[in-house]
Amino acid sequence: MANEGNPDDEEKAQTIEERKMRLAKEKLLQELEATSVRELQAEMKQVEDAMDHLRNLDRERHEAEIRFHDAVAEGRQERELYETMRKKEDEVHGELQAKRKQAALLHEKAVQKQEKIWEEQESQQRKEFLQSVVQQQQDDLKLQLQKSRECASKREEALRFKQQRQRKGAEKDHYWGVHQEIARQKWHDQSTRIKQRILDRRHLLDRRSQKIDAQELRESVWLETNAKQNEEKMVHLRALRNEQSQF
C-alpha cells in the first residue's frame, strides 16, 4: 500500500491529458471547418462570376436582336445580322449549358464536403460519448475497489475487537459479543447491498450506453451517506465498548 501512487494524482493527470486531447481535437475540427468554409465560399464566388458572365451574354444577345430588328427596319444586311444572331445565340446556349454543368459540379462538390464535415463531427461525438462511458465504468470500478478495501478494513477491525473482547470477563464478552456480531452482520449486509447496487448500475450503464440519470446519482449519494453513517455507528459502538471496559 505504501508503494502505490496517489489515485487522486493519477486521476487528475489523466483528466488533464484527456482535456488536452479534447481541446486539440476541437481545434483541429474548427480549422477543418474554417478551411472547408473558405473553399466553399471560393467555389460559390466562381458560380456567381459564371452567372454574371451568362447575364452579360444574354444582354449581348438581346442587343444583337435589337440590332437585327433595326437592320430589318432599315433594310440593311438582313441576312448577315440574322446569321450573326443565330451564331451568337448558339454560342450563348453552348456557354450557358457548360456553365450550368460546371455550377452543378461545384454544387455537388460543396455538398460532398459538407457531408464529410458532418460525418467527422458525428464520429467525434461518438468517440467522446464512448470515452465518457469508459470513464464512468472506470469510476465504478474504483468505487467498488474502495468499498472492498473499506470492508476488509472493517473486518480486520472487527477481528481485533473480537480478540480484545475474549480477554474480558465472561458476562461482558457475551453481552458485547452479541452486539458486536449484530453490528458486524449489519455492516456486512449493508456493504453487500452497496456492492450489488453498484454492479447493477454498471450493468445498466452497459446496456443503455449512456450516463447515469439524476435518480441514480441521488441513489448513489444516499448509499455513500448511509455507508458513512454505518461507519460512524461502528466507531460509536467501539467507543461505548471501551468506555464500558473501564468499569
How would you characterize this protein structure?
- Keywords: Coiled coil.
- It comes from Eutreptiella gymnastica.
- This is Trichohyalin-plectin-homology domain-containing protein.
- The chain has 247 residues and is mostly helical.
- The chain has one domain.
- The chain contains four helices and no strands.
- The chain is rod-shaped and about 140 Å long.
- The chain starts with 6 loop residues before the first helix and ends with a helix.
Main beta sheet: none
- Beta strand %: under 5%
* Cα gyration radius (Å): 41 Å
Q: Which regions contain 5 or more consecutive residues with pLDDT less than 50?
A: none
Class inferred from helices and paired strands: mainly alpha
Oligomer: single chain
Helix content: over 70%
Number of helices: 4
Strand segment tally? 0
**What string gives the helices and strands in order?**
HHHH
Q: Kindly, what is the distance between the CA atoms of the first and last residues, rounded to a whole number of angstroms? A: 38 Å
Shape: rod-shaped
How many independent structural domains?
Answer: 1
Could you report the average pLDDT, rounded to the nearest whole number? 72
Protein name: Trichohyalin-plectin-homology domain-containing protein
Keywords: Coiled coil
Organism: Eutreptiella gymnastica
